Amino acid sequence: MDERVNVKALFLGPKAENYGYFKEMLGYLMDDHSEWRRNFHPDDAPVVSADEQAGPDYLSTLQKTREALIELAGNLQLSSIPWFSPRYLGHMNADTLIAANLGYMLTLLYNPNNCAYEGSPATTALEIEVGRQLAKLMGYDPERSWGHITSGGTVANYEGLWMARNLKSIPLALKTCMPAAAAGLDDWRLRNLPSAEILALADQARAGGRFEELRRHSVRGIGMRGAGLGKVLVPQSKHYSWAKAVDLLGIGQEHLISVPVRDNYRIDVAALKKIIDGLAAQRIPILAVVAVVGTTEEGAVDEIHEIVRLRDRYEDQGVCFYLHIDAAYGGYARSLFLDAEGRFLDYNEINRQHARQGVLHGDTDWLTLDVYEAFRSMPEADSITVDPHKLGYVPYAAGAIVARDRRIIDLISYFAAYVFERTDDNPMLLGSYILEGSKAGAVAAAVWMAHRVVPLNITGYGRIIGYSIEGAYRFYRSLLSSPPLVVAGRRFEVIPLSRPDINIVDYAFHEQGNGSLEEMNRLNLAIYEQCSYKAGPVYLSDFIMSKTALSREEYGDAPAAFIEKFGIAAGEWDRLESVYVLRSCILTPYLTSNTTYEEYWRNFMQAMERAIGKACGR
Known about the structure:
CATH topology of the domain at 153-327: Aspartate Aminotransferase, domain 2
Strand content: 5-15%
Helix content: 40-55%
Low-confidence stretches: none
Mean pLDDT: 93
CATH architecture of the domain at 153-327: 3-Layer(aba) Sandwich
Distance between the termini: 58 Å
CATH class of the domain at 153-327: Alpha Beta
Shape: globular
């Protein structure tokens, strides 16, 4: 029996093709929940009588609800974004899985709060299970690691840095409360211990009954003043949450260092090494290095394998740092590398497996050795952010954080007396170990349902994400081969920013022979405004896209090579220091049909021709 999922059966569909099934399942979940209520002490008398239900005020109240719902439906239809359509080529959104939607809808009727097991026995267990599943997807040992659902990648990044900060402060705390354990180690060495050694020291304190004292002397007890934990190194392509994180955690903006990226928008590992060498020479420690798997603007995948090699070499030299991977966007793409048994596929075998499983056509030419090695090396990180509400195709809000060694959560845990019992041996005290308090159990149920139906390997998520990557590569290759558009006798070319590492394609249009970067920016901004909410109700748009500005302030001179492809002089970049690009996150799995893509591309380019015409005053 073929165990591969049918991708088209997983979603409601661009034309609500699976509406009949979805409606049937909605009826089931309402019937099931109603029976649950009726069967709780069935001898209890009903609270609402038939006479009351027939009363005018009762009927009036129901009518108000009906009218409010109709008004809301109208507002949503008028102003919402049609993520479900292949014509949506904007942000990291797409159709969501039927299974996830049904799981969310069913569970919200029970309204569990995953802050404490007492308020969510069912869904807290699901969240713990999902955490183990995501840990396994990232390559961690699910029995030794830790993971849970957050409200998004931002909170997950906060938690990653929170764990790093508290961990790195333990050795100095040990020197204060257990000096014998730190004997022979000066402050520089104490600030440069590997994560595993720090956790072993914490175990030693726990065995000696000194763990709570140790925590009181760490940053969680005495704060950051004078902690001297060092710098946080992030690529220029970082998500904005990292600037917030160093603020919220008291680390400070001056301790956040942006590492240059190359013109493929991956972190420049040579530049990273240079920065680390400079800091080490000044005896300035490094708290953490952050790498990205799937940058939010370009979809770039940092060379994790090279960063891991760098970290290991520096550890041998006595320079140690915590490594976090922000894979909020790209994390689920790791399913493309796992076979049905969860084994990471050999590079020489993976293309054959993709073809055999129908994941990618053989001519897609997506997977490079660098991307393969980056995904293979992800388990070497201390913690990873991954978002189910991105490439997990789960409704908002569902992020996640996973840590390689579950012992680290003891360095951030708290207990609220009215919610938790310290003597409770139940490991599912989520609220103690996380940044958030009250949190919807429905989200955990949605992710659990998604994983229950769609395996986290090439037979499940690999097929969905593979279809989206194939669609992105068709789009990318079409941009490369597209002849200039002729509008009112003027010729406009389109060039992609870089070869996509996953399924985000950035590109820009420009009039051939026009040497003005300012005019190029004006043109692409005008195209965006006609293909977004700026033009009015997006439901009337032919295609919907997003944009971003690549500035010297954020990216250094990495974008300069891109504008040179248009024949624009380097002096224009020096003058404006910013270039607008159109950005298409192609999460949709529906661009893979050989019979319809050519028509799709014609429609897209005709829409671009009309947009350029309007931008030029036609």
